[in-house]
Amino acid sequence: MKIDLSNPAWRQTLPPARSIAADAPVAACAFNRDGTTVAFALGDGQVRRLPADIKAAVPDAAAPLHKGVVLALVGDPAGDGFVSGGDDGRVLRIAADGSATELMALKGKWIEHLVAYRAGAVAASAGKSMFLLRDGEVREFGPHPSTVAGLDFSKDGSRVACAHYGGITVWSLSKEVALPPRRFAWQGSHVALRWSTDGKFIATGTQENDIHVWRVAQATDMRMQGYPAKVKSLSWTADARFLYTSSQPVFTAWPFSGKGPEGKPPLQFGEEGAGLLSVVAAHPTAEFVAGGYDSGELQLGDIKTRRSVVLKMADGSAITCLAWSPDGFKLAVGNERGDLLVVDLRR
Amino acid sequence: MAQVQVPVTVLTGYLGAGKTTLLNRILSEQHGKKYAVIVNEFGELGVDNDLVVNADEEIFEMNNGCICCTVRGDLIRIIEGLMKRKDKFDGILVETTGLADPGPVAQTFFTDDDVKARTRLDAIVTVVDAKHFLGQLEQGSEALEQVAFADVILLNKTDLVGADDLKKVEDKIHGINPYARVHKTEKSRIDLAAILDKGAFDLARILEFEPDFLTHGHDHDHEEEVKSLSITSDRPVDPDKFQKWMGALLQLRGGDIFRSKGILAIDGAPRRYVYQGVHMMMDSDWGSPWKEGDKRASKLVFIGRNLDGDNLKRGFEDCLK
User: What structural domains and CATH numbers belong to chain B?
Assistant: First the structure.
C-alpha cells in the first residue's frame, strides 16, 4: 500500500473516487479526528457528512445547520465530529451522530475562518477579533486593525497568529502568564496565513500577489513576488522543509531548510495544469502534495521525484478546498459547483 | 467557464439625504428581484433580511506606492463570501457612509481580480438632499465629490423646497456633473428600474449626450474648481499612443480626476473601444460594433478638480492619426 507516481498505473488511470452533487458551492472540507468521516461546508447552510470509506452507503443529507453559508469547517479536536462556522455568526460543534450544539453566536458577524489544535482548542475569526474556544470557554483576542483574514495555531498550540491590514499579530494564549501580543508589520492587506509546522515561520499571502514570511524568533521577514494572482492557499510540508503556494500552473515550493529561501528560486515541478492552482494541501506525513486548479483539475505531486499525476480532469468548476485524511490515503475535494469528491489513493 | 457578473450599485449621499429610506424600499418592496445589501450600520435598516451584510469601511492603501490606490478590503472579502451562497441574487448594493469618499469603493471593483471576475460596477448612485445640499457644499468637499462621482443622482426631498430653490440646486449639480442622470424624488420614491442595473457604467449614452455647460458667476467657492469637460474628435485614435498618454495622465493627475470615461474610434477597429476610470484606475473593453453609416467619432469625459482643458485637448490630439 504505497503511493508511487512512477508506477504506470498511476499515470494511466484515475484512482477510485466517490463524487456526489450537492448543488451548493463548497467553502471548506475536513476529515474528523479518526478519519472515518469527511464533511463539506456548503453554501446552503448544510454540513454534509459522508463516510470516508468510498464504498460505504451514503446517508441522506441532513437539514441545514446554519442559516446562510457555512464558511469554515474543521475536524473537532475534542470529539469525533466537526466544528463549523457560518455567515450567521454561529460556531457549532457537530457530534458524530450529526446533532449540533452552539459554541458561540455573534449576531451580524461572519465566522470566516476556523483552525483547530489537536489538544482540543479551536480558534475562530469574526470581524476584527479572534476567539479561542476551549473547554467550554470562549475568550476574545483583539480587536485587530482590520477584519482577521487568516489565522493559525503555533506548533505547540500556545499561540495564535492573525493576519490583517498592516501585518500580523501573534497572541499568547496562556491564562497564567499574560503576555502582550506581538505585532509583525508589513504594509498592505494580508489575506491568508499559515504557521510553519516547525513553528519557526509564519507565511501570509497579500493583496498585491506576494507572499510574506516572518521568522518568528528573529522577527526578520522576507517577501516573495512574481505571482499572477493573490496567493490565498499556503501549505507547509509535514517536515517544514517546504512551503507550497497556490496561484501558479505547477506545484511551487519555497525551500525553508538550511538558510531559507532568500536568494533562491522556488522549486517548481509537475505537469502544467489547466489554469492556476487555487488550493494546495501538503500530505500530512509524506512528500506528496495535492493541488486543485481554478479549472477544476486536480493533481497529486511528489517532490522527491518531481513528478505529478492528474487525479481529476478540468471541468470548469474551480476547486475551493482540499483535505487529507489523517492517514494520508484519502483526499477530500470540493468545488464551486457543489461536487463533493472523496478520492481513495490506495491501489 | 464564463461567469455571470453580478451588477453592483454604489449608493452614496450625505447624512440624512435619504439613503436608508431608499435601501428600505429596495429590501421591502415587491419587485421580484433579490439584492444583497452591504451596509455600515445594521441598526439603521428596519428590515430583517439575511442578505443584509454589515461592513466596516476598512480602507487600505495598495502596497504599490500609489497614494490614490485605496481600496475596501472588507468589500473584497464580503463579495467572495456572498458568492459562496447557493441562492444567487440579481444585484449587490453597497452603501457608503455619508462622509465617505466614494473613491475607494469604486476602486475596489477595478483592483481585485476575483471581484472583477464576479461583479461589475453598474453605477454610482448619489442621493442629494434638495433642502440642505447648498449648505453641505459649504461644509466640506464630501457633498461635492459625491455629486462629481455620480452616474445617477436622486435629487431627493424636492417637496421640502420651493421651485426657485430647487432650480438653484439643479443648476449647481449640473455645473459639477452634467453627465449624471438626475431623478427628482420625494421620500426616495423611485422606480428601482431607473437606478439599478442600468449599465450606467457602460457609457453607451456618452457619445449621444452633450450637456450645455453653464457659465457661473464670479464666486470663487472651492466647489468651483470641480468641473467636467469633454473632448471629441472624428479622427481615428492610435491605441498605443492613447494608452501611454492616459496611463501617464492618470498616474500624474489621478488624484484630481474623479471620473474619466470615454468611447474611442480606434484606427481600423470594427468595434467601439470604451473605458472608464476612477482616480488612477482605469478599465477598458471593446463595446458595440460600428455599423454602416455610424459616424466614427471619439469622445472623452473628465470630471475632476483643477482640470486643464487645453492641456488635455492637446494631449488627446497627439494620440490621433
Answer: 6-199 (3.40.50.300), 222-317 (3.30.1220.10)
pLDDT digits (tens, 9 = 90+) for B25-78: 888 888 888 899 998 766 666 666 678 888 888 888 876 666 667 889 999 999
Neighboring chain A residues of B87 at a CB cutoff of 8 Å: 44
Place B204 in a pLDDT band, splitting at 50, 70 and 90.
low
Test B56 with A128 for CB contact under 8 angstroms.
yes
pLDDT band at B218 (very low <50, low <70, confident <90, very high): very low
Between A and B, how many residue pairs show a Cβ–Cβ distance under 8 A? 78
* Residue-level pLDDT at B211: 54
Interface of A with B in 203-232 (CB under 8 A): 206-208, 210, 229-230
Test mutation, B84, B85, B112, chain A, max A CBs within 10 A: B84
Residue A85 · residue A63 · CB < 8 Å = no
Task: Determine, for residues A165 and B60 on separate chains, whether the beta-carbon distance falls below 8 Å.
Answer: yes
**Dihedral sign from CA coordinates of A304, A309, A312, A318:** positive
Domains present along chain A, CATH in parentheses: 1-28+233-347 (2.130.10.10)
- Write the pLDDT tens digit of every residue in B131-176: 999 999 998 888 999 999 998 999 999 999 999 999 999 999 998 9
Whether the per-residue pLDDT at B213 is higher than 50: the answer is no
Contacts of A67 in chain B (CB under 8 A): 50
Q: Which ipTM value was assigned to this complex? A: 0.91
Measure in Å the smallest separation between the Cα of A51 and chain B Cα atoms.
Answer: 24
Average pLDDT over residues B88-92: 90
Q: Among all residues of chain B, which has the CA nearest to that of A188?
A: B63
